[in-house]
Design goal:
Length: 379
């Protein structure tokens, strides 16, 4: 029940056939091939302030980030990057725009990956210098194509940003890397328009076998940005397209990690933390579902073990949902409800002590699952 994707063999409508991409390494993290889809975010502190940037990276790590991107707009930033990279527990991607020298400096400072935009990095000679720095220092690279910064000649050719222009830009730049015998790269073709984003990625997925970094750029504030990203990224991931993702929100970067994992969890592609299944509540509810779920979400945020929890207000759907979750609570009457463990009725629980009891049960289940995984690994 903790891993519903494992039921794909008996529920074929749950199965997602991932696109076959080649694998690259971002530091010690594999991206592409059969590796898990990784979740990224990006710092928004001044990179030159190493302390503030390290603090934010630590919060992202605790939220589950696999990879973190750090912008390097100037020499002060790449100078601080060495300290930041040394302190980070996850690989860092140095974000490079306009000044190719920043890419060379970031590679020297410990970047695991260099993100460059072919529309603004400069001449082929400058790109070659960045490639050589990546080779010399064991960096991978990301070709980051954005609809808002396409090359002038492509805009003149196509008249506007379109999937064909974005893919042509990406493939042109990939050819430069390949001509220099550099193959440790991934590509993104992002737009703020979900339609354009999805169309570009579908075309790119057919044209090249490198890993794809998927996302909607400049998606917007937390709520609308999450919806827009979920529509586009859900479409792509369901089609098997995407090896690493970033949800770009005008919000705390930690929220990007949360939303990214939630998208992957919803598709059964990655599992981290407690997946809470809850009803929207109605007049039948035997307790205040909405406030209970809000408290549980906060109190269970520290649990990284993948498991499922159902919180349902009444017996219409509660018992049925509880059959497929690790821990469940269904509201009843007279101030009490029923607790389910591993899909079976366990005991009756007063509403008054419900939250504390559920937190205890989830933590116990997490410890049990962790111990079982350690035993399995040891064998």
């Amino acid at each position: 029940m903790s891993d519903p994707s494992a039921l794909g063999h008996i529920r074929p409508w749950r199965h997602i056939e991932r696109r076959q991409s080649r694998r690259i390494m971002v530091g010690a993290v594999p991206v592409g091939g059969d590796a898990p889809i990784t979740v990224q975010s990006m710092t928004n502190t001044p990179t030159s302030d190493a302390g503030a940037t390290i603090d934010q990276i630590r919060r992202l790590e605790e939220a589950g980030a696999d990879i973190v991107r750090v912008s390097c707009p100037d020499e002060d930033s790449t100078a601080a990057f060495k300290t930041i990279a040394r302190e980070a527990r996850v690989p860092l991607v140095a974000d490079i725009h306009f000044h190719y020298r920043r890419g060379v400096e970031a590679a020297q400072a410990g970047a695991a990956c260099l993100r460059i935009n072919p529309g603004n990095i400069g001449s082929p000679d400058r790109v070659r210098e960045v490639i050589q720095a990546a080779k010399d220092h064991g960096c991978s690279m990301r070709i980051g194509v954005n609809a808002g910064s396409l090359e002038k000649e492509l805009l003149e050719k196509y008249g506007e940003p379109c999937p064909e222009a974005m893919v042509e830009s990406a493939l042109n730049h990939a050819r430069i890397l390949q001509d220099h015998d550099f193959h440790e790269f991934k590509i993104s073709v992002k737009a703020s328009d979900p339609f354009l984003t999805v169309a570009a990625y579908h075309q790119l997925a057919e044209a090249i076998d490198c890993p794809l970094h998927v996302g909607v750029t400049e998606a917007g504030p937390l709520r609308t940005g999450t919806i827009k990203s979920s529509i586009a990224m859900g479409n792509l991931l369901w089609a098997g397209i995407g090896d690493t993702i970033r949800v770009s929100l005008a919000a705390d970067p930690v929220e990007e990690i949360k939303v990214g994992f939630d998208i992957l969890k919803s598709l059964g592609l990655r599992h981290r933390g407690v997946n809470i299944i809850a009803c929207p509540s109605c007049a039948r509810q035997g307790f205040d579902v909405i406030s209970t779920v809000a408290v549980l979400e906060e109190r269970l945020a520290h649990v990284s073990t993948p498991l499922s929890l159902s919180i349902i207000g009444c017996v219409v759907n509660g018992p049925g949902e509880a059959l497929y979750t690790d821990v469940g609570f269904t509201g009843g009457g007279k101030g009490a409800g029923m607790v389910y463990l591993n899909g079976a009725i366990a005991f009756k629980q007063d509403n008054a002590g419900m939250i504390d009891r559920i937190v205890d049960l989830v933590e116990q289940k997490a410890a049990e699952l962790d111990a079982a995984r350690r035993t399995e690994t040891a064998e």
